[in-house]
Automatic annotation (TrEMBL):
Protein name as it appears in the record: Unannotated protein
Keyword flag Hydrolase: yes
PANTHER family: 1,4-DIHYDROXY-2-NAPHTHOYL-COA THIOESTERASE 1 (PTHR43240)
GO cellular component, one term: cytosol
Gene Ontology molecular function: any one: 1,4-dihydroxy-2-naphthoyl-CoA thioesterase activity
Length: 140
């Protein structure tokens, strides 16, 4: 299967399933997706902690969603992908608007994929940097 056929098959399966319940609840939208680079957005409103700032866990959900989709695109439609490590450094608070996450592949291997995810506010200021590693499980 060619890379473009693989991409189309994975995207078709994702469209059939729809967003995960958590992604939908948080308002995450993936607007660009290839194994090498993914871009997604998430509103700050509805994803804040009690003091009105974007919840740090919301940043992690956005990062994991992007990295997991990228790893799945790389692995192909017949493989399963699970996250095995994620970390995030929060640089600056976001209090309104939309944040954008850009996930860039660090490594795309046979069993592991890692992504750096940079999350920025509408002014283009980096608010969070995350790294996610996913394990590609053997075919059954």
């Amino acid at each position: 299967m060619s890379t473009s056929e693989n991409f189309l098959e994975v995207m078709k399966k994702m469209q059939e399933r729809g967003l995960s319940a958590l992604d939908a609840k948080m308002g995450i939208q993936i607007i660009e997706a290839t194994p090498q680079r993914l871009v997604g957005t998430m509103p700050v409103e509805g994803n804040t902690q009690p003091f009105g700032l974007l919840h740090g866990g919301a940043n992690v959900v956005l990062a994991e969603s992007l990295g997991s989709v990228g790893a799945h695109l790389h692995a192909g439609p017949d493989r399963r992908v699970v996250g095995v490590d994620i970390n995030a450094t929060h640089h600056k608070a976001a209090t309104s608007g939309i944040v954008t996450g850009v996930a860039t592949a660090i490594t795309l291997g046979k069993t592991l994929c890692s992504y750096e995810v940079v999350i920025s506010n509408e002014a283009g200021e980096r608010t969070c940097t995350a790294r996610i590693t996913c394990l590609i499980l053997a075919q059954r």
